[in-house]
Amino acid sequence: MDVLAEVLRVSGARGALGVMLEAGGTWGLWLDSYPGAALHVVSRGTMWLHVTGEKPLQVQTGDAVLVSPGTAHGIAGGASVTMGSCDREAAVRAFGDGRALRLGSTPVQTEAIVLHYEQDPEVSTPVLTSLARPMHVTAHQNAQLRRAVELLAAELAQPQIGTTAAVNSIVDLLLVQFVRAWLARHPEDPSGSWLGAMRDPVVRDALAYVHAQPEHPWTTETLAAATSVSRATLTRHFRSALGQTPGAYVTQWRIDLASVRLRDTDEPVESISSAVGYGSPHAFSRAFRRARGMAPGEYRSRLRSRHRLRV
Fold first, then answer.
1. Where does the chain have alpha helices with state H?
2. Which residue stretches of the chain have pLDDT < 70?
C-alpha cells in the first residue's frame, strides 16, 4: 500500500490558481492574502522569495520552491525590494485566458509560474504542514520535477476544457516530487511530522494497513499483531512519530474519508458508516460528532448549502 498516494488521492490539490509571471525592473508582491500552499517555479531569470523572519532566498532558472500553508511570504526581483499587495482579480483573469501577469517594467528579465492551491478542506491528515519551512529544489536536482513543470506551463499558457482538473493533477504530481526530495534530505528524521513518520518502519507498516482497509475493525492490538510488534511498542512509535495514538489516527482517517463521501456522494449515512469501519450508524454518528461538532446528516446539509451559495 502506497500511503502517500492514497492520502494525495483523497486530499489532493483543489482550486489551484496559477499564472505565468513576466517581470522586469523593480518589482515585488506580498502574498499573505492567499490561502493554502504556494508553488513558485522560475523558468527564466532570477526571483527572490521573502519569508518573515528569514533571509531572502534566491530562486534561479529551473528552480522550484514549495511554501507550506499559512506561511506569509512575498516574491520580488531583488533581495531588498519593497513589496506591494497582489491584485487577486487580475491573477484570476490571467489564469482564465492564459495571459501572463506583467509586473515592473520592460524589458522582461524574469519569467515564472506562481501557483496557489489548497488541499481538500475536509481532510485533516497533515501532509503539507510537515514542510515547516519553504522547500527549495534546484534545476539539477530533479529531472522529473522539471518535466512536470513543463506540463504545468503548457496548461497555463493555453487554457481549455479540463485545464483546472489538469492543473490540480499536475500539482499532485509535483507534490510527490517535493515529498521525495524532502525524504531524501531528512533521512534521519522519523518524528514530529506525517512525512517524517514514513521513515519509521513500524508506523509506516501500520499506516499501510489502515489506509488499505479503513473498514477493518482495527484496534491497537490488531494493528500491533499485523505489524508484528507489541501494543506498547506500536503506541510508543505512534506517539513519537505523529504525536497521537494508533486509535486516534484510525479515527481521524475514517472521519476524513467519511467527510469527503458525505460531501461528494448521495450514499446513505448507514452505508458510509460501514464503509469507513463503524459497526453501527450510532457509533459512527457519535465519533463524527466528536470530530466535526455535528451529526453526519447536518454536516452534509451544511456543505451543500455552502456550495449552493458559492455557485
1. 3-11, 88-97, 143-157, 163-185, 194-197, 201-212, 220-226, 231-242, 246-264, 269-275, 281-292, 296-310
2. 1, 12-17, 32-35, 86-88, 91-92, 94-96, 125-132, 186-192, 307-311
